[in-house]
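TICKET #2291
ISSUE: user wants both folds in one file
ATTACHMENT 1:
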Amino acid sequence: MRELVKKLIPRNLFHTIEPYGHWAEAILANIVYGFPARKLKVIGVTGTDGKTTTSTLITAMLRDSGYKVGMMTTISLDLGDGPIPNPTRLTTVTSFSLQRGLKKLAKAKVDWVILETTSHALAQHRVWGVPYSVVAMTNMSHEHLDYHRTFENYREAKIRLFKLCNANIKGLQIGVANVDDATGELFAREIQNPVRYGVEKGEVRAVKSTTTTKGSTIQVRTPAGELSLTVNLPGSFNIYNALAAAAVGQALGLSNQQIEKGIASLDAVEGRMTTIDEGQDFSVIVDYAHTPGSFDKIFNEILPVTKGRLIVVFGSAGRRDESKRPLQGEVAGRLCDVVIITQEDDRDQDGEQIMNQIAEGSERAGKTRNKDLFLVHDRKRAIGKAIEMAKAGDTVLLLGKGHEKSILSNFGKKDWDEMGAARKALQSLKK
C-alpha cells in the first residue's frame, strides 16, 4: 500500500506526510501487541558506523555478567531463544515486527534488550512506544541523504533517540556520546545524564592503546577508576566501539572487572573485518563498510600493515544516497592501489550507471580505467578478478555486503555469501 501511495503522491510531498502514516502504524502495533516494551529495559544504539559492533559488545558484556539479553541488530535477531539472521535488510525492523519481537522478549523475561536504532526508524516513528533507558551514539558521517535530504536532518533524526530516552522519566535517562565526533556534544546536550567518551576527550577516555592486526588493548580512565580493555576485533575504530560499550556498562552499574571480562569475551562480529584465510600469501578481508567516512577509516587502518598493494572491491546501493557514490570512489581512488567497482544492490536502477558515478570520483583521484580502475558488474567475477590480481603481501578488501545474504536487483533477490564467494575464489587459485 505504501508503495502505491508513493507512486500517486509527488516525492517531496510524500516525505512530508510519510512519517504520520508510520506514526499511526506504530501506535496500532503497540495496541495490537499490548505495549510490550513497557515490561522491558531497553538500550538503544545509533550512529552512522559501528552500531552493530557496539550493540554486540554490549550484549556480550551483559551476558558474560549473567544477564538475560535480547538483541535486535542489522545482522541478527535474538528474541530470547538464540540468534537468527535478520532476514529483513532493515536494521530496525518495521513497527509490527518490532512490537511482535518485543512481546516475545517480554514473555521470555529478559533483563535487557539491545536495540540498534536507525535514523529512518526514528524519523518514521517506528520506535514509538519504546521507553529507552540508556542510549549511545557512535559517530556521524555522510549517509542516507537520499532520504533525509540534508546532513542536518539526518543528525536531528539521530538526536531524537536521546530525546526519547530523556523523556522516559522511569528509565535511567543516560546518554553515552562520542565527543571526539563533531556532533557528539549536540547529543550530550539532549540528555539528563550524559556520559562523554573518546580518545581525545571525555569522562570515559582511552589514555593509551596498542593496536595489532588481531585487535587492541586499551587503558581507559573513567570516573569509576581505570579499565584495561582487551578488544578482539581488528581496527582502531573498534576502540571507540569498545569505549561506548564500557561507558554503557558503567552506566548500568557493572563492575570494572565485569566490563573488562565481558568485552574480552567477544571474538568476532560476522562480516565486520572478517579475515578469509585459505593459506594464500596475501590478505583478504570482508567488511560491511559502505560510506565514504567508513572507507577512509578502514583504508587508513589497513595501509600501514599492508606490505604490498591495497586492492578494493565495492559498489553502491541503488535507490539510496546517490551523492555518496563519487565520494566513495574518490576515497578509494586516493588511498587504494587498485579499485574494482561492482554491484552492491542495484534494485531497479541501472547498475552500469551506478558504477560510472562511483568511477567519476576514482578518476578525479587519479585512477585510470583498465589500468588501476576496473568496472566489473558481476560481483562474483569482481571478487575473482581481485583475488587473481593479488600477489604476496597485498591486501584485498571486499566492502559493502559483509554479513548480507542476498543481492537485490531488478530481477529480484539473489542468494549471496560474500565470505563464501571469497573462499571459493581463493580455492580456485590452487586448481
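ATTACHMENT 2:
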Amino acid sequence: MDEALYGSLKQRIASLLDAHGHLDDDRFLRLIEDEVWKDDRARSLNAREKGAVIRRLFHSFRGLDVLQPLLDDPAITEIMVNGHEDIFVEKEGEMFRTGLRFDSEERLEHIIQTIVGKVNRSVNTSSPIADARLPDGSRVHVVLPPVSLRGPIVTIRKFPPSPLSMDDLLERGAITPEAAEFLRRAVRARCNMFISGGTGAGKTTLLNALSQSIPEQERVITIEDSAELQMTNIPNLVRMETRNANAEGKGRISIRDLIRASLRMRPDRIIVGEVRGAEAADMLQAMNTGHAGSLCTGHGNSCRDMLHRLETMVLMDSAIPLYAVRQQIASAIDILVHLSRLRDRSRRVMEICELAGCTDEDYRLNPLFQFVETDGGDGQVRGRLERTGNGLRRTEKWRLAGIRPFPVEESLSFDEQEEEQVYETGR
C-alpha cells in the first residue's frame, strides 16, 4: 500500500470529519469511499486495492487501526505488538511477523488508551502494566515504557465467538469420550475441580466446556482478573472482575476481596478464572465450607506440581503449618485435570487424577486417566488419554448425588464392582 497516499487521505478525511461533526459508521464509510474513488493518485489501484485502502482508513478512525483486520480473522488466535513497528500473530498454531505497523508510537498509545478506557482501567508511566478486554471477550495485556524497553507492548489473546463445548474438544482430539463423560459427571456430582496447565494450554476453554454441565437452577459466581469466561447456560450468573488502584493508589479490588464478597452472595458454586496468589487460601476455605462443585484454574506442570504450587500460594500470606495447609488442600479438592500444549501445537488433556488424601510427606494422588503417547515419527503427537483402571476412593459426593463416576462396564475390577453396587443402592 502506498503510505504517502494513505497518509494524505487520512489527513483529508480527518479534516472532513471535523467539518461534518459526528457521522454514524455507514455515512462515515461512504465518505471514505467517495474520497478514495475521486483521488487522482488512487486511479491506478484496482478495486481490491482500493477496498483495502478504504478498510484501513475506516479502521484507523473507528476500529483498532492495523489491528482490526487481525482481530477480524477467525484463524488468528494471538496478536503480539512489540512496539509500533513490529506485530506478530499466531495463526493455526504458527507464529510469524505480519509486516504491519502503526504510523507512530503515539498512535499505538492512543489505541491502548482506547482499549483500557472502555473497561474502566488505566495504564500510564506510573502504572505501566494493565489487563483489559475487548468487546468480543478477547484478553488484552499491556506493558508500557519504562518497563518495556522497546515501546508499548500489547498482547491480545483471542477467543472464539461462542465457547467451545465438550463435543468440540472431542472433535479436536483434546479429550476422549470416556474422560469427557467422567468430567461431566464430576461436575454434576459437585466435585471441586482444579485445572492446571501452562500458558495457552486451554485451561479457560476446558473450564467453559465444564461449566455447560452445571445445572441451570444453580447460582454461580465467577471471579476473574479480566472477564474471559463465556457461560451462556446459567441464568443465575454473577460475573465479577478485579479493579486496579487509581492514580492515588486507592480503590484496588483483588481476587481475594472478591472471593470474600462472593461468600455473602449465596453462591452454589464459585468459579475463579485463575488462582495465582494468596487468594488460594480463601478459595480453599470456600471449597471446604459448603460451596461444593467450585472450579478453578492455575499454572502448573502436572497435577502434583499444581498441588505444591497451591501450598506455596497459601503460605505466601499465612503462617499456617505446612501439614495444616496440606490437609486443607486435600480436603478441598476432589479432581485435578492437567492440560499441555504439545510439540505439534495440539492441546491435550494429559492426566485426570483424584486427590485421595495426604500424608506427612506428600499427597496421595489416584490417577484415573493418563495420556499415553505412541510413536509418531513425523512431528505429530499420536496417543490417547487412557483410563488407568483405578476406581475412585472418595465416593461420598458421588453417592449423595446418585451418580456413577463411570458407565457400567463388563470388565470392572472387584473393587469397582463394589463401588457400582454402592451407587446403585444410593439411588
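RESOLUTION: both attachments delivered.
EXTRA DETAIL ON ATTACHMENT 2: The chain has 14 helices and 15 strands.
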